[in-house]
Write a structure and sequence with these properties.
The chain is mostly helical. The protein contains three helices and no strands. The mean pLDDT is 79. Keywords: Membrane, Transmembrane, Transmembrane helix, Transport.
């Protein structure tokens, strides 16, 4: 009879060998199928789509005007995931928790609109 530890070691070792073979095979296949043409000199420009760069592209100042939208989106995503998870066991506690989370999300969005952060046109 095979011991549980030996069986687990065999399974892990087999998975590691199979993973290494798949990864090595994909690297070899990539090397065989890669494009052999030399790089174009414009390949390493800031905009490789053909746009000419005006000024020094490393000195561009970025604004973070989109940050509030990102935060609101992440909060909405978390609320959606929690709503999906709580739908697996529908009870009053889960319903109240999800309702409170969506209420907090709506209050936050309303507050951001009130102070003028979430406006499409400036």
């Amino acid at each position: 009879m095979i011991e549980t530890g030996a069986l687990l070691f065999t399974a892990v070792a087999t998975a590691m060998v199979v993973g290494a073979l798949i990864e090595g095979g994909s690297l070899i296949l990539n090397k065989l199928l890669e494009d052999k043409t030399p790089d174009h000199p414009d390949k390493y420009e800031t905009y490789e789509c053909g746009e000419l760069t005006i000024g020094d592209p490393t000195k561009v100042k970025y604004t973070i005007n989109f940050y509030p939208y990102l935060v609101a989106f992440l909060v909405a995503e978390v609320a959606g995931v929690i709503a999906l998870v709580s739908a697996a066991s529908p009870n009053w506690n889960a319903l109240i928790g999800v309702g409170m989370m969506f209420f907090a999300l709506l209050v936050g969005i309303a507050w951001m609109r009130k102070i003028g952060v979430m406006t499409w046109m400036r």
